[in-house]
Amino acid sequence: MIRETNPAGFWVRLFANFLDGLLIFVPFSLIIYFITGEISFTSMSNWTWDILYYLYLTITPLLWGGYVIGKRMMGIKIKRMDNEKLTFLNMFFREVAGLYLLSFVTFGISIIVSAFLVLFREDKRAIHDLIAGTRVVHSS
Known about the structure:
This protein is mainly alpha-helical and 140 residues long. The protein has helices spanning 10-36, 47-63, 69-74, 88-105, 109-120, 127-132, and strands at residues 76-80, 134-138. The protein has one domain (10-138). Helix 2 runs antiparallel to helix 4. The longest helix has 27 residues, at 10-36. The chain is globular and about 50 Å long.
């Protein structure tokens, strides 16, 4: 296992996630507005939004070398622990199984535990990173 000397910490990862949510949510809301004539925040809390958002989180890093928009803006990226190229399976286990499904099954407790792992582990890896064999590092 390769030890990363520049792992991304809690605050930069949190802000990158915030940017992703904002940069995906606003355009999606505008599209809904132009189609329906109204902006409904309830439309963002259904399965369609979840599916689209997690498809974005799963596929974009495969196409963009470990980046999603928020991570690119913050200068951090997802890498495999063995430094090989990310695979669909890595990203599926990271985003869908390790983040979405696990947080659903644990009623959000896994997200809180992940925050503490990123805050206090030397390698700054969250539960979904451990499950998928990934890490988030500052890009150089």
